[in-house]
């Protein structure tokens, strides 16, 4: 099964944020934006939201707790070893707790991200326009639910906002997922 | 643009009342328990020295990195710099308290003490006073020079004064590294004259820098709420929050570096410093210090919504400023008074200093326009969007 997208190609990074706002003001929904370099305004303009930081925080809390539980169990409960008159349960746990928290939180965050985005080694890459990895900036709009007249509107909006080229690209979609 | 701060009458009244409380507290302290009075004078003076050093360092750092985002707030740290001359006046009485605060100034004690004899070429009263004079000469001279350059830039414009400011900021940072480290050794570390820690100055510098940024954020938000600095946006708040967040980690890092080395090495001369702090009546404060200055901002500022919310930041910054008091209190009291005593003298004395500081800062802000209009990077601050 295939799906058609309208793609606007822009030459310059200065145009892209302004263009996103112009197109959104006309009530057109932007599906995605691809740029060869990270642009700060884009993420905010597209109003993307992510709950990933909350997951990271949760992993951090879990990581700290289980690391502390492990340290406490090994050095206080299971094998208490007194040396230098120091207390068994002490602030020296902090370094290991800190490092292990970072390890657990980042590792689980990456795994969550990969699973949610269905990323895995050898995945077939969806490329709308290969030039978006070189020197062009592209805006992708889903054409499926648009009537002919609306599609024309979208194309005019893209041209007015400074697109140098407008293409239609077909995209294979996996019916399973 | 040429707007100056108009000090509200209510603010003046409150500041005068606080100062009166402070004066009363110190009179009461010196009448009833002089040693406690000296210790409190040192705590409050060092508290504000660290803040003023941190704030002026923040200003110098913005100049040498040519940071644009903070260029609308230069008057705040320049205003805080104006507290140095006041601190000099408040520190001079402390020279009469050397004998009650510092063990190394007792000649009979030094005579029987090889460690203090070894340190005597550095730790003796005349040299202490000479160094004291040098520190304040450097701090007042360079910060007033930077202030003056900024005011001249206001009138004449051009890049000339900016380049000069950048140069003197470099000079200031180098001299500050030396003078503040030695001042910290002199005033705080020498209380425990037998003990030493090589990271002590850095740890206290991190403390001052962290809380100075906290203070600048607090003042910027208050001014914004009063209707000044209308350009203060959530991107500025975000950048301030990032500063506080990372500096709280740096403070925690240096704090822990000092603690863990002494803890592991387990050498009696060194561990003696932590014994009264971790065991006995000071224990709750020891953990409060760590929790308030590191854990609290670390957790509170993690969320993007909190770190860009003015009211939330007002509360967080106020709590952090109390956190620094706990930090300085712990460093001074344990070695001088040996007992936990928080009463009218401590709270009243601190309130007095707060009132005086707020008054001096407001007075400095009301003298000159609140925005340095000819700062070459000002547009970057006005149009600031997070990066």
User: How many β-strand runs of chain B?
Assistant: 0
Low-pLDDT segments of chain A: none
What is the terminal-to-terminal distance of chain A?
Answer: 12 Å
Structure classification of chain A: alpha+beta
- CATH fold type of the largest domain in chain A: Alpha-Beta Plaits
Largest sheet of chain B: none
Number of separate structural domains of chain B:
1
Oligomer: heterodimer
Q: What's the CATH architecture name of the largest domain in chain A?
A: 2-Layer Sandwich
DSSP helix count of chain A? 5
Outline the biggest β-sheet of chain A. Answer: 4 strands, antiparallel
Helix percentage of chain B: over 70%
How large is the radius of gyration of chain B?
21 Å
Would you tell me the overall average pLDDT of chain B?
Answer: 93
Descriptive overview:
The complex is a heterodimer of chains A (177) and B (387). With 177 residues, chain A is α+β, with helices and mostly antiparallel strands. Chain A is built from five helices and four strands. In chain A, strands 2-3-1-4 form a four-stranded antiparallel sheet. Chain B has 387 residues and is mainly alpha-helical. Chain B has one domain. Chain B is globular and about 65 Å long. The A-B interface holds A 40-41, 53, 57, 84, 86, 90-92, 94-95 and B 256, 259-260, 263-264, 266, 302, 304, 385-387.
